[in-house]
Structure formats: C-alpha cells, structure tokens
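User: I'll paste a sequence; please echo it back and then give the predicted structure.

Assistant: Echoing your sequence first, then the prediction.
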Amino acid sequence: MPVQPQQPDRPVGPRTLAVAPRSLPDRVRHRVRSLHPVVWPAGLGALGLVGATVLHFVDPNEPGNYPTCPWLLLTGTYCPGCGTMRAVALVTHGDVLGAASMNPLLVFGFAPFLAYSYLRWFGDSLNRRTTPRRAGPMWAYWTVIVSILAFWVLRNLPWFDVLAPGVPLFPGW
C-alpha cells in the first residue's frame, strides 16, 4: 500500500478570500458597483430639481446674479443656448409662452426629447435592463445637428428676430 504524503496544516498557495479593497479608487469602484442602478437617474433628477429651484428663487434677469454668457460677451451674437436659464425660470413660474420666447428650440424641441429620454432611462434602471438599447438612425443625429446650426444662424439674422431671446413668439399674446 502506497504511503500518502501528509497534508500541511495551512494552504500552500495564497489565500483567496473576499477582502475589502484597500486603495481609495478600489473602494469607490466597489461602492459604485454595489449601488442600485436607479440611483443615477434619481440623483440627476434631484440635481435638476435643485437647479430649477435656484432659478425659481434667484431671478436670472437681474444683473449680477449669474455670469454673462461668454459667447454673447465675446461675439455679440446669440448662441443656441442663449435664454435657456431665463426659459427654465419662466417654466418654474408657469409661463410656458414666455419660456418659448426666450428659447423656442429648448421648449418645443429639446424639452420633450429630454423628458422622454429621462423617463426611459429611469424605467430601464428600475427594470435593471442589462442590454443597451439600439442607437437611433444616423439621419436623426444629423437632423439634430443641422437643426441646432440652422437655429443658431437664423436667430442672429434680422429677418428672424422672433428667435432672439426675449422677443415674443406671438406678439398679440
């Protein structure tokens, strides 16, 4: 009968126990992975509500409350985002037409798209969707880019001054 070698009291190789990460980046990475996926859209939504609350109580029309738009300061022309803070402030006060006069592209174009995208992200997070959704068609991306550039150019032309911030879209209203 062959003699079997005696087993040592302790393992020969390194121990493979689940130890807590030691470095700060490893601890942060571990903590982020352990969070529920809904934390990210809920956190962004809370941050957006805080920003809207600040805009509701601190008027962007009063000089000195917020910095001047750097593009407007340097060039004297309006960028596609000019009037966005005032539009959000007007929406928080319930004046949607006034918000549309500040930035019609934001109110009619991007606000519905952002609301839809946010709600879809939130719903996917609640359902713990693991596979990413298919990207949209390339023509949709080009349409968005061309629309922003056309809006940028047109709002600075004198014939389309209705697109400039603060000009009423419907003068009779």
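The radius of gyration is 27 Å. The helical segments are 24-34, 39-57, 70-75, 84-92, 96-102, 104-126, 138-154.
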